Design the sequence.
C-alpha cells in the first residue's frame, strides 16, 4: 500500500505542530524518528484519524482518506488501521479477551471471534491469559496484548506510538524482534514512531527523520546514516566527525591509525578510550574538534599521533553552508 | 527509619483515640449503660418511636433525591468541561466550587428570601408567584442541597473523564465500530465506578448535612437525623439519651454505606490508570453546542451562586426590609455596624478566624506526623491509624459533636475543656483532621521512595530530616491542607451551636442567631465578609497548587 | 524570611499539639483547665440569658460598669438554655439564669436547681403574679403576645384570634415554634387553659394554613419581609422594635384577651459566685435595670416604671393564667401541638 501525504499541516491556534508535509511511504516498515515535541506523534495521529489536520490530503493507494479540499475525513475505525499506544491503553475494566474481541464485533461472525482471539494471542505468545484483566499483567505482557489487539482486526496498517519506551532494555530488544517478525509474516505495513535511533535503524526499511514540525530527511537506514541531508540528521543518527569547514563529515569507521592509499592524515591528541565490548571507542581532539573512531587496543591518554581518514567515506552535505 | 517506632505509634494513636474515638465511645456508653449496668431500654425506646422511622425515611429519601439532583447538574457539567471547547477555561472550576464553599445555611437562607411570598423573585417578576408554592417543598430542598453539593461530584467525574479522554478513548475510536457502542462499553463502565464512589459520598454528606435541613427543612416541616439530634439537644424538653441513640443509629447507617463504598471501590478501581491526557487539543463543534454549553453553565452558575448571593448581598444592604427592592432602600449601615470596633459581629468573625487558624495549624502538625507514619499504609498499624484519622470524614459532624459533649462532661474526668474556647478548637480539629491528612498524604505519595532512603542515610538526626527535607518538600500539601481546613472551619455551624462557651460566638453561630433573634441584615453582612474571605483563600489555594505544580514538575 | 515564618508556625503548632495532648491524658495542669477554673474567682459571673439580644448586652454593660464584675454571657432561646443546663449537669458553670418563660423557671425551682434570694432589693415592687413567693425567681419583665401583621400586605387589620381562621388570611399566617420559643408555649398553654374552644381555634388555624416558623424572630421576620401577613403569638417588643426601625409592622392585642408572658431571673443552686449573682438580680430589679427593660420595649416588672412607645400592662386585655406548676402541663400541650402540626 502506498501512503501519500500531500501538504499536510497542523496548527493549534497560532502555534504550529506541523509545517506542510509531502511524503510518500510504500515500505513495509516505516519509522518516524525525532526528538520529543518534533511533531512525530501528531503526524501519526493524523494518519490514524485521531487528529484532524488543518490542511492537506492523505491517500492510501488511490483512496482518499483525508482531504481538506474535498472535506473528506474517513473515521479512524473505517481506515482499516490499528494502533499500539505508548501507554498500551488496554481498557482496564475488560478482560484480555474482551479487549481483543471489542474490535471484532460486527466485523467477524460471532462464532469466529473466539478462534480469531486465540490466533492472535498465539502470535504474541500470550495463550491462556484471556480471562485476566490488564491490571494483573506485567508491562511486557500488556504490550503483547496491545499488539494482539492491533493484529486481530487484520489491518492493512499498524501504527505504533513509541510502544517500547515503557519497557526495560532487555525486554525492548526482544519485543523489537518479535514485532519485526510478526509484521514481516503478515500482510500489513507498520509505521513506528520512536525517539530511539538504534530502534529505527534496526527495525525499519524506511525512516522519516523529523525536526521541529518539518521532515528533515526520508530514506532507507543506510541513506540516512551515510548521506545525512542536514547537520541535524548527521548528529542525530550515529556518531559523526566534523571537518573544519562544517559541511563535510566522516563516520568513525572511516577513521583509523593505519595509513591507506587515498587517506588524509590528521594530527590527533587522545582524550579517552572506552571499552565497548568488541573493541575500544577512542575519543580524540582533531583540529580543535572532538572526533571518535574505533581501535582494537586502548590508546594512552594525552598521546599525540596521526590518524588517517578514508577519502571515499567523506561525505559532503548538500546545498548547505 | 524514622516515624516508625513503637513510641511514635503509641503517641499518635493516643492523640487520635483521645480526640476522635473517645467521643464515639462516650456515645456508646451513654446509650447502653445506665448506673453501671448494661441497659438497652434507651435504644429500644428509640426503635419504638414512630418518629424515628419517619426521620430515617426522610433522611434516606433526601439522600437518594440529592444523588439524583447532583447527577443531573454534575454529569452534563463534567461532559461540557471535557468534551466541548469549554475545556480550556480552567477558571470555571474555581467558580464552580464556590457553591460548595458557601455555608449551606447561608445558601438556603438566600434561596428562602428569594423565593418566599413577596420575596425578591416576586418583586422582580410579579408573575412568578406560582413558583413559590412549588419551591417550598421537598423538591426545593433537594434542589438547594444539590446545588450546594454538586461541585464535589462534578470534580470527580471531570477527572475521570479527563483520564478516559486520553488513549483509552483513542483506542476505542480506532477499534470500535460506532460511537454509541464505544460510549456504552468503554466510557460508561470506566465512569461508573468513580460515579458510584462519588454518589455514595454525596449520600453520606447529605445525611450529615445540618445547615439546609435546619433552615429550609424546618420551614417545610421536613425533619432529618441531624435536625432531630440537634432539637433533642437544644429544644425544650431536652432528651439527651434520645440524641445519643439517634447519633449512634446515624453513625451505623453511615458506616454501612461507607463499607459498601469500600467494597465497590476495591472491586472497580483499576490499577491501570495510564490514560495520558493530551497536551494540545482542539474541539470543533457546532455553534448550537457551544451556545447550549454556555447556557447550561450560565444557568447552573445563576442558580448555585447568582440567586443565593443576590439575596444575601441585597439583604445585607437593605435599610428597611419590609420595603424590599425599592430604590433608596440601601445603605452600608450593616457593614458599618459590623466594623465598629467591639461589635458582636466583628468579635464573632474574629473568633472564627482565630479558631480556624489554630485548627489549621494543629491539624497540619498532627496530620503531618500521621501522614509520615502512615506513608503507603503497608502495615496493620499504619492502616489502623489511617482509618481512624479519616473516620471523621465518614461520620457526620453532629455525631462527633454529641460525643465530644458527652465525653468532656464525664464526671470522672479530672479536668475538662468543656465550656472553654479550647473545646471549639478540639472539636474543629477532630472534625477536620482528615483534610490535612489527605492533602499531606497525597503530596507525600508524589515523593519518591528514594527520598526517604537518602534522608535516612544523610540526615544527621531525625529533627534535621524533618526540618530540612520533609517539611519543605511537603509544604505545598501542608499549606493546601491548612487553607482547606481554615475555609471549612470558618463555616462550621453545628459544632459552634452546641459547644461554644458563654460569651463566645463564631461567625457561623452569629449569623445563625441573627436569623433566630437578631438583625438579619447584620448577619448577612457577616456572611458576605466570610464568603468574600473564603473566595480569596480559594484563589490563593489554586494559585499555590498551580505554582507548586510548576516547581514540582 | 519566609522560611523562618514557617518554622515559627510549625513550632507553635507543635507546642499546641503537646498542650492539647497533655490535656487529653489529664495528668498535666494546663491552660485550658485554668480557663475553666476561672469562674471560681469571684470577679466573674456567668449568666445564661434568653433574648432580647440588645437588652442582655445593655444590662451586661451597665452591670459591669457599676460593679466592676466581668460577666460571661451565654445567649440563646429558653429551650437552648434549658438544654445546655441539662447537658452540663456534671459540671455546672451558670450562676444566673434568665428565661423567657416563668413556667420553665418554676419547673427549675421544682427540680431543685435554683436557690432562694428573698432579700432582693425592690422585690416588693415587682409584679407578684410573675414572681415566686419564696424568692426563687423574679419576673423582672414581660412581653405581651399579640397578632403582629404587615401593614402593607394585610388588607384589613386583624381584631380577634378567630379572624385568622378566615379565608383572607389563608396561608398567610404563622406562629413561632413552641419547642423553640418559651413565649409560644406560654401562649398555647395560657390560651387553651383559659379558652374552652382554644384547641378548636388552633385546629382551624392549621386548616387555614398556619405555618410553624422557627423562633420568635424568624416568625416575625417572615411577616416583615412579606412572606406571611400575620404572626400569631407575636412577641410585642420585637414588633415595636421593628416598627421603630421603620418596618411595616403593627401589633394588636385581641379584645377577648391575650397572654402576658413574664420573663424571670433566678440564681442557680450550684452558683459559684452567689454574691455576684445576687448583685445581678438586684440590678435587674433596680430602677436603672427596669429602665433598660423598657428601652427594649418590654413591660417592666415594676409597675411604677413608665413604658416606652408601647401599650402599658393595664391597657392589654389579659386572659387569666396560673403559671405555678405549669411546666409538666406544658410538656403535654407541646406534645399535643406537635401531633397536630407534624
Sequence:
Amino acid at each position: 500500500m502506498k501512503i501519500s501525504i500531500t501538504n499536510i499541516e497542523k496548527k493549534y491556534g497560532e502555534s504550529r505542530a506541523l509545517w506542510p508535509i509531502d511524503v510518500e511511504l510504500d515500505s513495509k516498515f516505516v519509522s518516524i524518528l525525532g526528538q520529543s515535541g518534533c511533531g512525530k506523534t501528531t503526524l501519526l495521529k493524523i494518519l490514524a484519524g485521531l487528529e484532524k489536520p488543518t490542511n492537506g490530503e492523505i491517500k492510501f493507494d488511490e483512496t482518499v482518506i483525508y482531504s481538506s479540499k474535498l472535506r473528506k475525513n474517513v473515521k479512524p475505525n473505517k481506515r482499516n488501521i490499528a494502533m499500539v499506544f505508548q501507554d498500551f491503553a488496554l481498557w482496564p475494566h475488560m478482560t484480555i479477551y474482551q479487549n481483543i474481541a471489542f474490535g471484532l464485533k460486527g466485523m467477524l461472525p460471532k462464532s469466529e471471534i473466539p478462534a480469531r482471539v486465540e490466533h492472535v494471542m498465539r502470535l504474541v505468545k500470550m495463550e491462556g491469559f484471556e480471562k485476566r484483566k490488564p491490571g494483573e499483567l506485567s508491562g511486557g505482557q500488556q504490550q503483547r496484548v496491545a499488539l494482539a489487539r492491533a493484529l486481530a482486526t487484520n489491518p492493512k496498517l499498524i501504527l505504533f506510538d513509541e510502544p517500547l519506551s515503557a519497557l526495560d532494555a532487555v525486554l525492548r530488544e526482544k519485543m523489537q524482534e518479535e514485532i519485526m517478525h510478526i509484521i514481516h509474516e503478515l500482510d500489513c505495513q507498520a509505521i513506528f514512531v520512536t525517539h530511539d535511533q538504534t530502534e529505527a535503524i534496526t527495525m525499519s526499511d524506511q525512516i522519516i527523520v523529523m525536526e521541529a514540525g518539518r521532515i528533515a530527511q526520508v530514506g532507507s537506514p543506510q541513506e540516512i546514516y551515510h548521506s545525512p541531508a542536514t547537520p541535524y540528521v548527521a548528529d542525530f543518527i550515529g556518531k559523526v566527525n566534523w571537518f573544519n569547514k562544517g559541511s563535510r563529515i566522516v563516520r568513525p569507521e572511516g577513521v583509523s591509525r593505519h595509513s591507506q592509499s587515498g587517506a588524509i592524515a590528521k594530527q590527533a591528541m587522545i582524550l579517552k578510550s572506552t571499552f565497548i565490548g568488541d573493541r575500544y571507542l577512542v575519543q580524540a581532539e582533531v583540529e580543535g574538534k572532538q572526533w571518535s573512531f574505533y581501535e582494537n587496543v586502548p590508546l594512552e591518554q594525552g598521546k599525540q599521533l596521526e590518524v588517517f581518514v578514508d577519502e571515499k567515506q567523506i561525505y559532503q552535505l548538500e546545498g548547505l553552508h | 527509619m524514622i516515624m516508625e517506632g513503637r513510641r511514635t505509634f503509641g503517641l499518635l494513636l493516643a492523640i487520635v483515640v483521645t480526640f476522635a474515638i473517645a467521643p464515639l465511645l462516650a456515645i456508646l456508653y451513654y446509650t447502653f449503660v445506665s448506673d453501671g449496668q448494661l441497659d438497652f431500654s434507651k435504644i429500644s425506646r428509640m426503635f419504638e418511636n414512630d418518629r424515628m422511622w419517619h426521620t430515617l425515611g426522610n433522611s434516606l429519601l433526601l439522600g437518594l433525591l440529592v444523588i439524583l439532583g447532583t447527577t443531573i447538574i454534575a454529569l452534563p457539567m463534567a461532559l461540557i468541561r471535557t468534551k466541548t471547547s469549554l475545556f480550556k477555561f480552567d477558571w470555571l472550576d474555581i467558580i464552580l466550587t464556590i457553591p460548595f464553599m458557601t455555608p449551606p445555611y447561608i445558601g438556603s437562607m438566600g434561596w428562602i428570601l428569594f423565593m418566599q411570598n413577596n420575596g425578591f423573585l416576586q418583586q422582580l417578576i410579579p408573575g412568578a408567584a406560582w413558583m413559590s408554592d412549588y419551591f417550598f417543598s421537598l423538591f426545593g430542598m433537594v434542589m438547594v442541597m444539590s446545588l450546594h453539593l454538586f461541585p464535589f461530584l462534578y470534580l470527580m467525574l471531570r477527572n475521570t473523564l479527563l483520564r478516559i479522554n486520553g488513549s483509552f478513548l483513542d483506542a476505542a475510536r480506532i477499534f470500535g465500530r460506532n460511537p454509541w457502542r464505544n460510549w456504552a462499553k468503554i466510557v460508561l463502565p470506566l465512569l461508573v465506578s468513580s460515579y458510584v464512589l462519588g454518589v455514595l459520598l454525596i449520600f453520606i454528606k447529605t445525611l450529615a448535612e445540618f445547615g439546609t435541613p435546619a433552615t429550609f427543612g424546618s420551614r417545610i416541616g421536613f425533619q432529618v437525623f441531624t435536625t432531630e439530634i440537634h432539637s433533642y439537644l437544644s429544644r425544650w424538653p431536652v432528651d439527651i439519651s434520645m440524641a445519643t441513640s439517634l447519633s449512634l443509629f446515624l453513625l451505623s447507617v453511615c458506616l454501612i454505606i461507607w463499607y459498601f463504598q469500600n467494597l465497590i471501590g476495591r472491586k472497580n478501581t483499576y490499577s491501570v490508570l495510564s490514560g495520558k491526557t493530551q497536551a494540545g487539543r482542539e474541539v470543533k463543534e457546532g455553534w448550537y453546542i457551544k451556545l447550549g454549553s454556555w447556557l447550561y453553565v450560565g444557568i447552573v452558575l445563576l442558580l448555585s451562586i447568582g440567586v443565593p448571593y443576590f439575596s444575601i448581598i441585597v439583604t445585607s444592604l437593605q435599610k428597611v426590609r419590609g420595603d424590599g427592592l425599592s430604590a433608596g432602600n440601601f445603605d452600608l449601615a450593616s457593614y458599618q455596624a459590623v466594623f465598629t470596633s467591639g461589635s458582636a459581629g466583628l468579635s464573632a468573625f474574629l473568633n472564627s478566624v482565630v479558631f480556624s487558624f489554630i485548627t489549621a495549624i494543629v491539624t497540619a502538625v498532627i496530620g503531618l506526623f500521621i501522614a509520615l507514619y502512615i506513608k503507603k499504609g503497608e502495615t496493620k498499624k499504619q492502616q489502623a491509624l489511617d482509618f481512624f484519622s479519616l473516620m471523621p470524614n465518614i461520620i457526620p459532624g453532629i455525631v462527633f459533636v454529641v460525643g465530644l459533649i458527652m465525653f468532656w462532661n464525664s464526671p470522672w474526668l479530672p479536668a475538662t475543656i468543656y465550656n472553654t474556647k479550647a473545646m471549639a478548637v478540639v472539636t474543629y480539629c477532630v472534625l477536620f483532621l482528615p483534610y490535612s491528612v489527605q492533602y499531606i498524604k497525597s503530596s507525600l505519595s508524589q515523593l519518591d521512595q528514594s527520598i526517604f532512603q537518602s534522608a535516612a542515610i544523610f540526615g544527621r538526626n531525625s529533627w534535621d530530616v524533618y526540618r530540612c527535607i520533609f517539611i519543605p518538600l511537603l509544604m505545598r500539601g501542608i499549606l493546601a491542607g491548612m487553607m482547606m481546613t481554615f475555609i471549612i472551619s470558618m463555616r462550621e455551624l453545628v459544632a459552634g451551636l452546641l459547644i461554644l462557651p458563654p460569651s463566645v460566638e463564631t461567625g457561623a453561630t452569629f449569623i445563625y442567631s441573627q436569623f433566630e433573634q437578631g438583625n438579619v441584615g447584620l448577619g448577612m453582612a457577616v456572611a458576605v465578609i466570610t464568603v468574600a474571605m473564603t473566595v480569596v483563600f480559594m484563589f490563593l489555594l489554586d494559585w499555590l497548587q498551580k505554582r507548586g505544580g510548576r516547581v514540582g514538575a | 524570611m519566609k522560611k523562618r515564618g514557617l518554622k515559627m508556625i510549625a513550632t507553635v503548632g507543635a507546642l499546641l499539639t503537646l498542650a492539647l495532648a497533655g490535656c487529653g491524658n489529664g495528668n498535666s495542669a494546663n491552660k485550658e483547665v485554668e480557663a475553666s477554673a476561672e469562674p471560681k474567682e469571684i470577679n466573674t459571673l456567668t449568666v445564661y440569658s434568653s433574648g432580647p439580644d440588645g437588652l442582655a448586652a445593655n444590662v451586661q454593660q451597665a452591670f459591669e460598669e457599676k460593679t466592676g464584675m466581668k460577666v460571661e454571657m451565654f445567649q440563646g432561646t429558653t429551650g437552648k438554655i434549658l438544654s445546655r443546663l441539662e447537658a452540663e449537669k456534671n459540671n455546672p458553670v451558670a450562676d444566673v439564669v434568665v428565661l423567657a418563660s416563668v413556667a420553665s423557671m418554676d419547673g427549675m425551682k421544682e427540680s431543685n436547681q435554683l436557690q432562694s434570694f428573698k432579700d432582693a432589693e425592690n422585690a416588693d415592687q415587682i409584679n407578684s403574679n410573675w414572681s415566686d413567693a419564696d424568692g426563687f425567681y423574679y419576673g423582672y419583665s414581660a412581653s405581651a403576645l399579640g397578632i403582629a401583621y404587615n401593614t402593607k400586605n394585610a388588607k384589613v387589620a386583624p381584631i380577634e384570634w378567630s379572624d385568622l381562621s378566615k379565608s383572607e388570611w389563608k396561608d398567610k399566617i404563622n406562629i413561632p415554634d413552641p419547642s423553640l420559643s418559651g413565649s409560644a408555649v406560654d401562649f398555647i398553654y395560657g390560651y387553651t387553659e383559659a379558652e374552652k374552644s382554644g384547641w378548636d381555634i388552633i385546629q382551624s388555624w392549621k386548616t387555614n394554613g398556619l405555618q410553624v416558623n422557627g423562633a420568635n424572630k424568624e416568625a416575625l421576620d417572615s411577616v416583615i419581609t412579606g412572606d406571611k401577613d400575620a404572626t400569631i403569638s407575636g412577641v410585642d417588643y420585637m414588633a415595636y422594635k421593628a416598627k421603630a426601625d421603620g418596618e411595616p409592622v403593627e401589633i394588636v392585642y385581641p379584645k377577648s384577651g391575650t397572654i402576658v408572658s413574664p420573663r424571670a431571673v433566678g440564681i442557680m443552686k450550684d452558683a459559684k459566685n452567689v454574691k455576684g449573682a445576687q448583685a445581678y438580680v438586684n440590678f435587674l430589679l433596680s430602677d436603672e435595670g427596669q429602665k433598660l427593660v423598657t428601652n427594649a420595649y418590654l413591660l417592666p416588672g415594676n409597675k411604677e416604671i413608665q413604658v416606652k412607645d408601647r401599650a402599658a400592662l393595664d391597657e392589654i386585655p389579659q386572659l387569666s393564667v396560673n403559671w405555678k406548676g405549669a411546666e409538666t402541663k406544658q410538656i403535654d400541650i407541646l406534645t399535643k401541638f406537635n401531633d397536630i402540626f407534624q
Q: What stands out?
A: The longest strand of chain B covers residues 33-34. The CA atoms of residues 166 and 279 of chain B lie 10 Å apart.
